[in-house]
C-alpha cells in the first residue's frame, strides 16, 4: 500500500512538473467553451415531487436527461431524496453565444478570481464523497462536482438535432452515455485540451478549473517569454554559484529552496503578496523573486571577482580604500546571507515589486547623486535619470579638457571657466524642468503636428473643454523661452566672474565672506522669518509676531495682501539661490578641482567625473530647494575646518557627501520624532485590545526600534506601526510619490454613465460624489497659486515629500508635495468627506481649536504671561506630529449654501409661485430665442397647436391642480386659453417688446398660442414626472428634480408636436424649470419685487448672464466650476445611507479662509504603509479596526482615510498636478515676469512710448500730457463732413469693444472741466465722431470715414482752465443726428434746464431733436453736460475754432455754476493709496488740511474701503498739470473720493464711472 501510494505521489509530481514546463513555454488558453444553464433555471417551475417530468420534452431531450440522471446517480454524485423543495441556484450565471458554447467568467480584468462553482480535485472526491460543494435548501440533498455539473448542463442545453453533427468537445463520460451500453463500460477519462497550434492540441489530465487553480494564467505572449528568460537566468546563476562553492553544507539545501521558490513563483505567484500595493491578482508581483535573485547573484559573482583581482589604482576616500579585497568580500558575504533569507524577506515584505524598485532606484540616484527632484512615474524617473546622465556626459568633456591643461597658483585655464559657466547654466535649466515629460511632449506635438478640433454642434459635450492642459502647455512654453535667454546670460555672467581670477586672488577672505553670507541669509530666511510668521512662534508665543493683513478679518473679500516681510523673504531667497550658492560652488570648484584630479586622490579621469557630478548636485539642489542648504554648508565648513581637518577630501567633495548624509539625518530625525510622539504614554490612544497589549510589550525592544529607524532612514523606507499599535516594523522602499498606482477619482456624471441608468437609478447621487467637484476646483486654485505662495513663505518651510492639511468649515484636504523644483511644485490633493466619522470630527476639532486660552501649569491654573502660551499648552504643542502654520490662508474657492427644497415647497402657495415662475420662464426663453420666427412658421407645429388656437380651448388634463396652477379655470376644470391670457398676456407682451424686431403679441396671435402650448406641455411633463400626484410633496419634488436634470416624458398625444424641433425642450422648457427655481429662491427676499415685468425681465437677464443653473450630473456643471463661474445653482437629490433628501445648492465664488497644518511626513508615510499592509496582505476587513481610531497627536484617522481607495475612503484624489510660479500674479509683480524674447521686445517698445510721452509733456510749454498724447494739439481732419445713419452699425457682441477702443473703453468717467486749446481748429464731424464712438451704445463707425482719436485711454481727465464758453460758431456746434434716442432725450432735458437759467440768448432749441434736422447741434458750453452721459475721450477733441475769442468773466461764472458732480464705484481696492496723506515728502497739494488728515488709514481705523463702494469725486490730481494743486506725482491720475464721511485717495484705474449727477 505504501509503495503504491509513493508511486502515485511520484507520478503526480512528475506530471505536475511536466505541465509546469509546458505552461512556461506556451500560454494557457481556454478550451472551446460550452453553454450551460444554472440549476435554478433548470429547476424553475418544478413541483415538490421527486419525479422528473419529461413528458413535455421531446423524446431526444428526455433521453438525454435520463442518461444524465443515471450518469450522476451511478457516479454517486447526486442523491435525490423523496421530498424536497426547489433547489437554490448553484453557481453563477453563464453566458451563451450564438454557437451554443459555454463561456466562463474566470479571471476577470484586474485579477479577480470568479469561478462558477466550487470544486475539488479528483484525488479528494473518493475520500470526501459526503461533503457538500454547493448551497441547496435544507430539505434537499444534492451532491455534485464541477465535472458532473458541466455534463448535466451540457446535456440539458444541447440541440439534439446537432448531437450527431457537431463536435461539442464532450468528455468521454458523456459520449459513453450517448453510445450503446456495451461501449459505456469502457474506462472513463476526462482531460483539458491544451492548444499548441491553432489546430494542434494535446490532452492534459486536468480539468480547466483545477489547472487554473494550480498555475497562474498568462494573458500575453510577452509574459511567457519573460518567464522563460527569467527561469533560465535563475537556473544558470544558481548553478554558477553552486559550482563555485559559495554555499556549503546545509546552506546548499537552503539555496536550492530559494532557487525553487523563485522559479515556481513564475508558475504560481503568491496572491496577495506582502508587498503588493493592490487587492486581487497582481501580475507584476510574480516576477519579483526571480529578478531580485538574479541581481543578488550577479552582485555576489562580481564582488568575488573584484576581490580576487589586483587593482593598479587604489581609490581612497575619508581613509577608506574602496578597492580593498576585505571590503569587497564582506559585501559579498552580506549579500549571500541576504539571498538565503529570501523566504523571510518576501514574507515580511521588505522588497517591493520590480517596477516600484526601478522607479525608487532611479529617483534616489537622481536626487542624491545628480541633485534632481522627485519623480511622478516610472517613465518620469527614467527620463529624469537619462537627462542627468546626458548633462554629465556633456560637461565631462569640458572638465576633463580643463584638467589636462596647465594649472598654477594664480592662473585657472579659460576652459575651466567655460566649464563653470556652462555648469551653472545647465544646472539652472535642469532645476526648472519637471520630471514628467508628458506636458513637454504634448507641447512639441501641438507645435509640430497641430490637430484641428472638429466640434459637433449637436453634441452637448463638444462645448465642454478642460482649460488646464492648455494652461500647462503655455507655462512650459513660457519657461522654455525664458530659459533660452536666462541660461545664456547666466553662462556668460558666471564665466566672466570666474575668469576674472577673483576666486584665486581673494582667497581665503572670499571663502569666509561667502560662508558668513550663507549662514546669515539662510538663518534669516529659513529660520527666523518662518518662526516669526508661524501661528505659535517657537511654541511659546500665542500669536504670530508678523501678522498678515487678513489676520483679524472675519471674512476676506480680496486676494491676500502682499506684506513687507513677504517681499523681504522672496528677495532674500532670490539672492540666496541665484547669487550666493552659485558663488560658493564656483569658489569650491576653483580651489578643489586640481587637488581632486591629482594622482594622489582620484586621478584625472575619475576626478573630472566627480567634479562634474558634485558641482551639478550642489547647484541643482540649491536652485530647487535651498531650505536646509545653509545648515549643511555651515556644519561641513566647521566640521572639516576645526574638528577633522586631516580627513577632509577637499571642500567640494565634503559638501557633496555631507549633503547626502544630512538628508538621511533629517529623515532619521522625523522618524524618531514620529515614533516618540506616537508612543508617548501620556497621550496614547488605544484603538483595540491589541494596542493595550502591544504598548508594554514594545518597551523592552526600544533598542531594536532605534536600529530599525536607522536602517529605514538609510534606505528611505517607511516605519509603520503594526496594526496601528506601538510596535513598529520597516516596510519596503517606496519613491516619494509613495503610491505605486496612479489612482485618481473618476467623477460619475452624465458623460460616463448610460442613459438608462441616469433616468432610472440616478447614479452618483451620493454626497461624496457630488461634493468631489469642490476639491477638484480647490486643486485648480492650488495649481494656480501654490508655488507662488510657497515662495512667498505663506506655508513656512517646505521640502520634498512634505504633507499639509488644509482645513476650513467644510473642506478638509491633505496636500502632498512630491516634486519641488526651481519655480515649480508637483502636488497631489486628497479630499476627505464633508461629514466624516466621529473619529475624523475629533481630529478636525483638535487642529481647529485654539490653545491661547489654556492657563494650565501642571495640575494648577495660575494663568500665563500675555501673548505667551501657558506651560501645559507649550508642552502639549511639542508632543504633536503636526503644527498649525497659518490660520488665515486665503484661497479662491466656492462658498456652499444648501437649503432644503422640502421646506421651501412645503405649502401649496409656494408651489404655485414656483409653477408661475416656471411658465414665465418658458415664455421668456421662447420669445428671446433667435429661432422664434422659425418655430412660428413651422407647419408641423401649427398643425399640432391648431386646437390650442381656438379661443374656447381648454385643457382638462387631470394633472393640473387648482392649488398650484395660478391660471386654473375652476369653471371649466382645466387650463383654458382665456385664463392663460388673463394671467400671462401682460408678460408675453413685455417680453415681445424687448425684442429687436417686435412680433404680434395679441391675444389671438400665433405667438400666444405657442406660449400657451408650451406652458401646458411643461406643466403636464411636471405632473407626469410627479406620477400625477402633485399634491404630495415627495412626488412633486421627485418630478421637479426629474425635469431639472432634463428627464422629460412626453406621454400625451396632444404634446407630440414638440418633436418637430427638440430644441424647444432643450433651449426653452429645461432652462425655464431651472430659472424658476432661482426666481422662487429670490422670492423669499423680496416677495413683491417680481410683480413688475421690467424687474422680472431684468432679473432673468442678469441671472442668465451671471449664473449657471445646471444639474450636478451634467458635464456643463463641472466645466462651469472649473472655469470659475461666479455663481452656480443646482437641485440635488441625495440618496445615501437610507436618506432621501432634496437640496437647493448655491455656489458663490469668493475667497475662502483655510488653516494650514503641517504634518510630519514620516508619520504620513508610516501610517499609509501600515494601512496598506493591514488591508491588502493581512486582509483585515473590520470597519472599526483599531488602526483607524482617532489619535489626535498623529491625526491617525485623517491620514488613514486619505489613502487610495479601497484602502482609504477619500471622496477625491487629484492627479499629480504641477504648479508654476509664473502663474502667480503677486509674485510676478515683485520679481517680474518671464524673461523671454517677446517680453523683452514688449518692454523696450512700451518704455520707448512712455519716454516719448513724458518728453512730449515736459517739452510742450503750451499744453499738458493730454495734448502730448494728441500729437501736440495738431488739428485733425476727416475725409467727409457728415456721417449717415447707414454708415454706422451697432455692435451686437454683448459688450465687446468697438473699433478704436482700448481695454478700458466703457469705463471712462466724465470730466468736470475742459482745457482751452488756442490756435487749433476742429471740425464738427471730428467732435461728433468722437462722441459717437464712445457713447454707451458702443457705436462703431464705418470705414468710409476717418477719425482723429487723440485722447488718452484714461478716465476722469481734468484741467484747470474751466469749460469752454458758449459760442455760436458753426465749428463749435455738435450734430446730434447720429446719437441714440436715449442720449438725445437726456440732452434735451439738459438744454431745457440751461435755457431756463440763461437770458439774452436767442434761438435756443428745445425738445427732442429729430433725426432729419441735421442742423440741430449742441453749443460748446453744454458739452460738459454731454460728457456726463457719454464719457470723456471723445470730448477732449473739442477745441475753439477761433483763436482770438475772448472769454468773459460772466461766461466763466456760468461755467463754474454748471459743474457736474460725478459718482464712481471702486472696482480694484489695490489701487487705493492708504498712506498717501501721511507721506513726509508731501508729494500732493491737498485742497484742505482737514481733508488730508481724514483721507488715510490713520483716520479710518476699523473701516476700510471695499470693492463695490460708491462715492463722489471732489478733487483730482493729473500728471504734468501746470497747476501744482492739481498735479499728480506719478504718471497716473489720482482721485479724491468722498464715501459717506470718509475720504479716499485712489488711482483712476481702480474705479468705475457711474455717470454724472445733473
Automatic annotation (TrEMBL):
Q: Which residues cross the membrane?
A: 14-36, 221-243, 287-305, 326-351, 378-400, 412-430, 480-497, 509-529
Gene Ontology annotations for the cellular component aspect, listed alphabetically: membrane
Output compositional bias ranges, type Polar residues: 1275-1291
- Family note: Belongs to the pecanex family.
Gene name, per UniProt, is LOC103051141
Localization terms from the record: Membrane
Membrane-topology descriptor: Multi-pass membrane protein
Q: What is this protein called?
A: Pecanex-like protein
Question: Where is the segment annotated Disordered?
Answer: 1268-1298
Keywords associated with the record: Membrane, Transmembrane, Transmembrane helix
Q: Does the keyword DNA repair apply?
A: no
Enumerate the spans annotated as Pecanex C-terminal domain: 1001-1226
Q: Origin, by domain of life?
A: Eukaryota
> Pfam families of this UniProt entry?
Pecanex_C
Q: Record keywords: Transmembrane included? A: yes
